[in-house]
Design goal:
Blueprint: H1 2-10, H2 18-30, E1 51-56, E2 64-67, E3 73-77, E4 81-85, E5 91-95, E6 103-108, E7 114-119, E8 124-128, E9 134-137, E10 149-152, E11 156-160, E12 164-169, E13 174-179, E14 185-191, E15 198-203, E16 211-218, E17 221-234, E18 240-244, E19 252-258, E20 261-267, E21 275-280, E22 286-291, E23 294-299, E24 305-309, E25 328-329, E26 335-340, E27 343-348, E28 354-359, E29 365-373, E30 376-383, E31 387-392, E32 412-416, E33 421-425, E34 430-434, E35 439-444, E36 453-458, E37 464-469, E38 472-477, E39 482-488, E40 492-498, E41 503-512, E42 515-524, E43 530-538, E44 545-546, E45 552-559, E46 562-569, E47 575-580, E48 591-594, E49 601-605, E50 610-614, E51 619-620
Antiparallel strand pairs: 1-31, 2-3, 3-4, 4-5, 6-7, 7-8, 8-9, 10-11, 11-12, 12-13, 14-15, 15-16, 16-17, 17-18, 18-19, 19-20, 21-22, 22-23, 23-24, 25-26, 26-27, 27-28, 29-30, 30-31, 32-33, 33-34, 34-35, 36-37, 37-38, 38-39, 40-41, 41-42, 42-43, 44-45, 45-46, 46-47, 48-49, 49-50, 50-51
C-alpha cells in the first residue's frame, strides 16, 4: 500500500522535484507487484501546507467542540461524544448516549473531568470523561421553556432556560430550581467559584427591542447591574465588560468591576455599524465586533482600531441573538482568521488587508477555535461535513494542492468510456468528472435550492444524461449543460437503457408501505416520447431485469396470491404471463439476476442460494 499512498499524495511534486520523481517512478515499476490498485492522479492530501490534521469519526455534523484546559485534547459532539488527542490526532474515546436529536451545546468542567451537552430535543447529557459514564436528563424547566444553555462547575451542572434554571449534582440528581426575578429572558449565565456567585445576561426576548442587562450575583443576591443594548462581552474572570451603553448608538464602551461595582472605563472609537456579535480575544487584548461586512477590533489598552472587510459577495449573518461568525487572532496578533461558509479568511492585522482565502471544508464551517498556546499557532474548525481540522497558521501561505470533491456523499456512478467521463450522483447535484485526470469538470442541478437527485445514467457516447430529480425525469445535454426534456414521474426507483441506449425505462412507485404499485414507462432517448407503460404490484422493490436478448422484462412483485414473477414484452410492454414463486425452502429474494448465456433463465438470489427459473417454459430448474 505504500506505493499507492506515495503516488496519490506526491504526484503534484513530481515535475518540480527530481528526487520525488525518481521515487514515484520506482513506485510505478515495483509497487504493482505488491498492490495493483495504483492512483492515476492526485487524490490524497499532500504533506505540508496549512492543514495539520483532519479529525474524523462523527456520523453527523459537529455543532460543538471544546478544548481541555491543558489544550491537549478536544472534545466534540454530534450525536455522540468523541475525544481527540491534538498531539497525535488519535481518537482517544467515544461515547454514544443514544439520545434523539443532535447535541448543539457543550461545556467542560474546569478540571476537565466532566462534560455536558444539550440537544435540540431539550435533553442534557452529563458525562464523566475519565470513565465514560453518562447520565441523561430530560428538560427540567417549565413547560413553555426550552434549554437556552448549560454551565458546568467542579461540583454542579446548571441547566437554564428563559426564566428558570435547575441545579444538579454530577450524578444527574436534581437539587433545586431557581427563577428569574423581574422581567426579561435569560440570555446567558456564567458561574464563578460557586453556584451562588455568578453573572447573568438578561435581554427582552424580542429582536426588535435588544435592551440587555448585565447583572452580577454574590451569595445569590444581586450586587450590581449594568444596562446596555444589542451586545455584551465579558472576559474570562468576569471582571471586565464591553457593551453598547448608549441607546441609539453602536459605540462600544468598556467597564471594570471594582469593589463590587461596574466602573466605566474608556469608550472606543465611534462606531455607526450594527454589531452582530461582540467577543473578547483569547489574550484579552482586543475587543472584537462582528459586523455585516466584516469585523472591527479595538485594542483594550491603546487607541488602535482595525477594521477587516470581507470580499465582495460574502457577508456575516446572524445565527441567533448575539451569535454570528467569530474571529481568531494568531500568535503575536499578526493575523486574524475566521471561517465563513466553507472558506477560511485571513487578514494582516497591521494593514487590515485580506491576505489569504482558501477552501477549508466541503460544507459550511460551524465553529472556529483558537489553538494559540506555547509553540502552537493554529486554529481549529468544525464543519457540517463531519470533520474537525487543525490549521497551522505558520504555514497558512504555503501552496495548496487542491483536490476536487463533492460536498455530499456520492450515491452512484455511471461511466462513459468513449468520452472518458464519469457521472456521479449526490443528493444535491450531478457531477461530471474526467476520470483520466480526476478533475471535476462541472456540476448539474435543475434547481439551485431544494434539489433531491436519486438516480442518473450517462450514455456510452457521453453526450446525454438521464436523471431523476425532485420528482421529475430529466434528459440533459452535456455539451449545452441544459435540460432538453422534463416530465413528471415522482418516486423513481430505477433507470436503465435498452435498444442500444436509444430508449430509457424509468420505474417509479405509488401507494403505501407494503402495498405499492410500480409504474414502468419506456421513453425515447433523448427525445422523450413515451412508447408504452405498464403497472404491477409489489411489496419490496427489486430491480427489474431485462433478458439478454431484450425480449422480456422480468419483474419481482407481490399480489393477493403471494410473490410472483411478472413477465412483460419489451416490444409493447404487454404482460405475457406470471409465475408464482412457490419452490421449497423459499426465503426472501434479495436480487433478480439474468443469465447472460441463457436468455430465458433468471436467478432469484436469497441469503442462502440462487434459484433458477426458465421463464420461457415457466418452470423451476
Amino acid at each position: 500500500m505504500l506505493a499507492a499512498q506515495l503516488n496519490g499524495r506526491l504526484m503534484p511534486e513530481r515535475q518540480s522535484c527530481p528526487n520525488i520523481k525518481r521515487l514515484l517512478d520506482q513506485c510505478d515499476e515495483e509497487g504493482v507487484n505488491h498492490n495493483a490498485l495504483v492512483p492515476t492522479f492526485h487524490c490524497m492530501h499532500t504533506p505540508g501546507g496549512p492543514l495539520k490534521y483532519a479529525l474524523q469519526g462523527h456520523q453527523f455534523a459537529i455543532f460543538a467542540m471544546k478544548l481541555t484546559s491543558d489544550n491537549r485534547y478536544i472534545i466534540s459532539c454530534s450525536n455522540k461524544f468523541i475525544t481527540f488527542d491534538l498531539a497525535t490526532s488519535d481518537l482517544v474515546r467515544q461515547v454514544y448516549p443514544k439520545v434523539q436529536g443532535l447535541m448543539i451545546g457543550l461545556e467542560l468542567s474546569s478540571d476537565d473531568k466532566y462534560a455536558a451537552a444539550y440537544t435540540n430535543n431539550n435533553q442534557t447529557i452529563l458525562i464523566n470523561t475519565l470513565i465514560s459514564e453518562f447520565f441523561i436528563i430530560d428538560n427540567p424547566l417549565n413547560k413553555e421553556e426550552h434549554v437556552q444553555g448549560i454551565c458546568l462547575t467542579e461540583t454542579n451542572l446548571i441547566i437554564y432556560g428563559q426564566v428558570t434554571w435547575s441545579i444538579f449534582d454530577l450524578r444527574g440528581n436534581f437539587k433545586e430550581k431557581r427563577h428569574l426575578e423581574g422581567k426579561g429572558h435569560i440570555h446567558e449565565i456564567r458561574m464563578s467559584d460557586c453556584i451562588d456567585n455568578y453573572t447573568m445576561i438578561i435581554w427582552t426576548g424580542n429582536l426588535d427591542d435588544p435592551k440587555m442587562i448585565l447583572e452580577t450575583f454574590e451569595d445569590g443576591v444581586s450586587a450590581n447591574k449594568l444596562e446596555g443594548h444589542s451586545v455584551i462581552a465579558l472576559n474570562k474572570k468576569q471582571t471586565k465588560a464591553f457593551l453598547c451603553g448608549t441607546e441609539g448608538s453602536n459605540t462600544v464602551s468598556g467597564y471594570e468591576l471594582k469593589d463590587g461595582q461596574w466602573v466605566k472605563g474608556r469608550t472606543f472609537e465611534e462606531n455607526e455599524e450594527q454589531i452582530l456579535m461582540l467577543e473578547v480575544s483569547r489574550n484579552e487584548k482586543w475587543c472584537c465586533a462582528t459586523i455585516l461586512r466584516g469585523f472591527k477590533l479595538w485594542h483594550v489598552e491603546t487607541d488602535t482600531v482595525q477594521q477587516l472587510f470581507l470580499p465582495h459577495g460574502v457577508r456575516n449573518i446572524t445565527k441567533g441573538f448575539q451569535v454570528s461568525s467569530n474571529i481568531i487572532l494568531s500568535a503575536g496578533d499578526k493575523l486574524a482568521v475566521t471561517g465563513i461558509r466553507r472558506d477560511l479568511f485571513c487578514w494582516n492585522m497591521e494593514t487590515g488587508a485580506l491576505v489569504k482565502q482558501m477552501v477549508a471544508h466541503f460544507q459550511r464551517i460551524v465553529d472556529i477555535k483558537s489553538l494559540v498556546v506555547g509553540r502552537e499557532n493554529a486554529v481549529i474548525t468544525s464543519s457540517i461535513d463531519r470533520s474537525i481540522k487543525i490549521w497551522n497558521l505558520d504555514h497558512i501561505f504555503d501552496n495548496e494542492r487542491h483536490i476536487d470533491k463533492h460536498e455530499l456523499t456520492i450515491d452512484s456512478i455511471s461511466i462513459s468510456t468513449t468520452a472518458g467521463i464519469a457521472v456521479v450522483v449526490t443528493r444535491t447535484c450531478l457531477g461530471v468528472w474526467d476520470f483520466m485526470t480526476g478533475k471535476l469538470k462541472f456540476a448539474l442541478a435543475n434547481s439551485a435550492l431544494g434539489t433531491i437527485i436519486t438516480h442518473a445514467l450517462v450514455n456510452e457516447e457521453g453526450n446525454y444524461i438521464v436523471s431523476a430529480e425532485s420528482g421529475d425525469i430529466l434528459y440533459w445535454s452535456i455539451a449545452d449543460r441544459s435540460v432538453i426534456f422534463q416530465e413528471r414521474q415522482p418516486d423513481v426507483q430505477q433507470l436503465f437503457f435498452y435498444k442500444k441506449q436509444t430508449r430509457c425505462i424509468a420505474v417509479s412507485r405509488k401507494g403505501k408501505k407494503g402495498d405499492y404499485t410500480a409504474i414502468v414507462i419506456s421513453r425515447d432517448f433523448p427525445k422523450g416520447a413515451i412508447h408504452w407503460d405498464f403497472k404491477y404490484p409489489f411489496k419490496d422493490f427489486k430491480d427489474i431485469v431485462i433478458t439478454p436478448d431484450e425480449l422480456h422484462l422480468v419483474c419481482y412483485g407481490f399480489d393477493k396470491k403471494g410473490h410472483q414473477i411478472f413477465v412483460h414484452a419489451v416490444r409493447n410492454g404487454d404482460q405475457k404471463f406470471k409465475i408464482p414463486i412457490n419452490y421449497d425452502g423459499f426465503k426472501e429474494v434479495l436480487k433478480v439476476v439474468a443469465l447472460p448465456d441463457k436468455p430465458s433463465v433468471i436467478a432469484l438470489i436469497d441469503v442462502d442460494k440462487g434459484n433458477l427459473i426458465d421463464i420461457a417454459q415457466e418452470k423451476y430448474l
